Amino acid sequence: MKTLRKADVVIVGGGWTGLLMAKELGARTALSVVVLERGVPRSTDKYADDMDELDYAIRLRMMQDAAQETVTLRHDARGRAVPLRRYASFLPGSGVGGAGEHWNGQCPRNLPDFFELYSRTKEKYGVNRLPEDHAVQDWGITYDELEPYYTRTERLLGLSGKAGNLRGQKVEGGNPFEGWRSEEYPTPPTKLPYFSALFRDGAKSLGYHPYPVPAATLSQAYTNPDGISRPPCVYCGYCERFGCMIGAKAQPTSVLLPVIEKKKNVTIRKGAWVRRLVHDAAGSESRVRGVTYVDATGNEVFQPAEIVFLASWTLNNTRLLLLSGIGEPYNPGAGKGTLGRNLTHQVSFAAATAFFAKPLNRFMGSGASGMLLSDFDGDNFDHSQLSFLRGGLLEARNTGAHPIGEFGEVPHRVGSRWGSTWKKAGIEYFDRVGRIVVSGEHLAYKGNYMDLDPTYKDRCGDALLRLTLNWRENERRMAELLTEKTVEIARAMGATEVNTFPGLRNYDSRRYQSTHVQGGTILGTSPESSVVNTYGQHWQAANLFVLGGSLFPTGGGDPDAHDPGDDVSHGGRRSGEVRKKARATGLNCYREPKTRINDLRTEENGFALEHFDGEEEGGGGVDARGCKDDGDVVPVIGANHKFLAEQTYVEDGNKRELGSELHARQHGRDGRDDDDENERHDVALRFFVALCESGDGDQDRREKDGQRNRHDEDGERCADANVEGGISLTGLDRLGVQAVGDGEGNAHRDDGECSGGQRGCENQQELAEDQVRARDRAGKNRFHRAALFFSGGEVHGRMHAAV
After folding, report:
1. Nearest Cα to 611, choosing from 624, 594, 630?
2. What is the pTM of this model?
3. Which end of the chain is more exposed for a tag (fewer CB within 10 A), N or C?
């Protein structure tokens, strides 16, 4: 096996979350980043010849090849799983950009209560209303925490839409049920197809509240904060299962790749089939040393790395951790383990297929042009007298009808599905039919999970992933009610005939139901109930992060809410992280005016992070050491220490009170100027990264690192502020305090004044409310809002900056 030169960061997977992470690290740091993508290269300029329905939409050219790797499926633990010989119910992408290249571009946000599903349901209906075998749990993060990242994601993609809840004020024409948003959409709604206009009018006549689909297909020309310009959509109808030939649809190759290609420290390696994460076990914790993969020539390669990100879609993330032996596999019988649990898939079906007397011009449209209705989404309607929980969106879109896949939809009265009668009816109704689709939530159940199949293997001889998945009565009853409501709207639209959905039975792998498969590596606040923490950091391997929908503890009804809205808000996880989420993505940093990360570079024996904040509009000033705060270096960490840093920057130097939790809560500000009165101004930048170096951490070397000095722009020399243990806090100004306990329950303040466990430190320091005194070697007091906490041979730091 060939061993390559060590990289600072390896990212497994080159889709939305993987390339977003690569872009952020490449643009914000000097770390060497390697992206491993097993598929082929893709780019927008190559899509001009891809409008071939047979090749792309029927034969699935942009999808993973099931002959190379697939999954097995069974409905319960008693059955024998069989391989899916062809992907149909979900379509995992392959190649640079992944499924983000062939998505439709719908990007609504999840409802606020979605992230606290267990708590909200228990509070309103009582815990006994949850299904008996449910595995529902809260995420550990809230909508309010993710809102700034949702907003940043929308700017990044240039989403077209109409706000319905702008800073708590309801806005006519938008979604009145959505969570509050800090800004209007970057671009107006897309053009409305005729079928969607009929849906809007019919729904309004019944007292409902339709609104335009939040679309990643541009309604007008747009330039995002990274300087990437894209043209408006031309409504050609080739979005779903196709790459956009003009770049109007936000996709990784049109939004992220142009930035990445300018960075010399980022490499995208195609044809790299990752097989294992190589790790060293050390008691309850382990450390990932890198990954092994088979390259395009068939040779096995070991790529060492300091930090590893798994960004290879839900099923692949879970399978790689299972194959690598990282984490405890979930055992539903014993109720132990977390890896593989909470498998969910969006409940998606055409509830009403409506036929009309007039042509609908279905050939014109885009993946996200149309109307949505949220009156029956989540808990927007009362479930007290219903036999199920939650709900879903109703969608009326016109994605572009293609002659092969769309032909033959006829009213049930035709009777035949073959022969001259059927052909004649197919021609008559080809442009006179539209579908109202339900995208419903899927609760998590103890009996729906993933593990390794004991029988079937892939081309490399590795076990396939086995899905144990089925619907429950909750989803079946939800589908019944939503079908009734949908048919009611179809009639109000003027449909002459309506074919209704027959109902959910067993999970059907032959029918497409979205590629929104979630769970397996879920996030949470405890290693007993989750695989990763709320930042996507693995509980048992501090230098391993997981990105994407596999972090989601439950399945949402909002289509593409995590593609990339939550993945890259959380994200983005995510970048959010692109990031739905956003903290869930592990790193979410975004360039805003007057604030930029200048450099995160490898030092001889550690890392140094520099931040620069502009002096315009109060952005400058003097820090606690009397030094100007436009260019101070923040910290150098010794080689044998683990360092976890989060920095939150707020626009225009407007300092915020820092909360007492492990993150900075977002606070509004009122009346800063006439234009911004009562406007909520949220975090402009969050930079989160874990740096883990191995080595003996020679004390003398660490102390030498602690003596680094820096001149500010006026030539003033700022003395270092050193804390015990030889860790330098050079230029660490206005940083919030957090307490992190060691394995014995002890937490240590940097000046040694706090002891007696986590609670003792919280009481003594009041977390971020007090300033910490960091003494330099001359014994002078330096007031810095910062803390590093020692745990054996490790140091943990969590810092928040309000600049």
Report:
1. 630
2. 0.74
3. N
